[in-house]
């Protein structure tokens, strides 16, 4: 769906309730966990260093918990405080050419280990693409903190097929901007943990 302004709460709640009952739009649910590429999909990977040490790792985890990896100048997650739990359904908005494009996703699985934290969400029928995306932060043995986005996708909606080069460009822009946003959040002088 395309909109010029934010949805009023009842419409958003209705959309999320409807989408939470719908199935994922792809059969390979959970496939980002393996790290293998999937034939028939665009497979993307970004891995960047965002910090050093336990404090930066905790800050990176806080960023994931607060959905801070979404570049705030052109993307939004609603509800804003959606819990990072398997089954949580969210509306992901992306702004392009003055319009907000609404997409529905549900958290497929979470990762919560001593040295890794994150989640993957998958597309629902209210999304122009089909696929899955993993957002993960890791603390390596050498103390470096890494942020990773791993995704597979392919167009589902006619607009995504017709605008395929544009959609791929926006996906690449999202990965770059997300890495910058995570780096900035982790490097803030007063950690928000």
Shape: globular
**Helix and strand sequence:** EHEHEEEEEEHH
Structural class, from secondary structure content? alpha+beta
Number of domains: 1
Report the major sheet.
8 strands, antiparallel
Question: What is the strand tally?
Answer: 8
Helix content: 25-40%
Beta fraction:
35-45%
| CATH fold group | Alpha-D-Glucose-1,6-Bisphosphate, Chain A, domain 4
**Name given to the CATH homologous superfamily:** START domain
Provide a count of the helices: 4
Which stretches are poorly predicted, pLDDT < 50 over at least 5 residues?
none
User: Radius of gyration from the CA trace?
Assistant: 16 Å
Q: How far apart lie the N and C ends? A: 35 Å
Which CATH architecture? 2-Layer Sandwich
CATH class: Alpha Beta
Mean pLDDT: 93
